[in-house]
Structures are given as structure tokens and as C-alpha cells.
Amino acid sequence: MYEYAEVRWDGASFYPVDDPTIFDGAKVRVQIKQSHEGTDPVVVGRDFPGIEERLEYSTAGGARSGTYRTATISHRAGLSALGDSVLFLDWHGDGRGYQRHDYTASPTV
Asked: CA–CA separation, 105 vs 50, rounded Å?
């Protein structure tokens, strides 16, 4: 099984400058799970922190929208395997650390 995540966002436009202080951290976690009744255990996963710089980037016009695609992870998996991803954001100065945002996997096989 091969799995990757593609994240797209359309943020608010404001002053045109790259701002490395929006987040203390941001990453996408790509996971392959073994599906069964109850909670699906993760059999392999990998974090991709490269999204933080992309989220903090703005165009000359101040637009903060973009895309980020992770590298592909793989694992020999049975028929009941599934993939998903999680976005973790740690907003600068809020004192809450990473906050988890779960997403449902695409039905594309």
C-alpha cells in the first residue's frame, strides 16, 4: 500500500510578508492502518514538518493560500488496510502545543 497526503488551504489575505512567527510548529502525519472492528491500529506513520514554512508564506499581494504534498510512505498490507492523515498545528504563543486536526482518507485506490 502506498499513501501520501495533499493539503490545500485558502488563508486570509493581509500584509504581504512571510511571517515565520505564525506557528511554533506545523506538520502533517501520514499513516497506514490495519482496519478491524474497534480502533484501527497504525502500522506505519511518518511526520512531515515541511508544511509550516508553506503556511507562513504569503504572495506579494498578501494572499496566504497554497498546497503541500508529502512524500509517499509504503507498507506491505492486507486487504483491510487504510490510509489517513492528521494535520498538527501549534499556533505561536497560545501555550496549547500541537492541536490535532483529523481528516478522512480519499476513496481513491
From this structure: 20
Express each pLDDT in 37-87 by its tens digit. Answer: 888 889 999 999 999 988 888 877 777 888 999 999 999 987 888 888 999
Contact 43, 34 (CB under 8 A): yes
Report residue 92's pLDDT band, with 50, 70 and 90 as the boundaries: very high
On whether the CB atoms of residues 7 and 67 are closer than 8 A, the answer is yes
Reported residue count of the chain is: 109
Q: Give yes or no for a contact between 52 and 27, defined as CB atoms under 8 angstroms apart.
A: yes
Alpha-carbon span 31 to 20, nearest angstrom? 27
Q: What angle do CA 73, 79, 84 make, to 5 degrees?
A: 40
- Strand bridging mode 81-91 / 42-48: unpaired
Beta strands in the chain (DSSP E): 2-3, 6-11, 23-34, 42-48, 64-69, 73-74, 81-91, 99-103
Give residue 87's pLDDT. 95
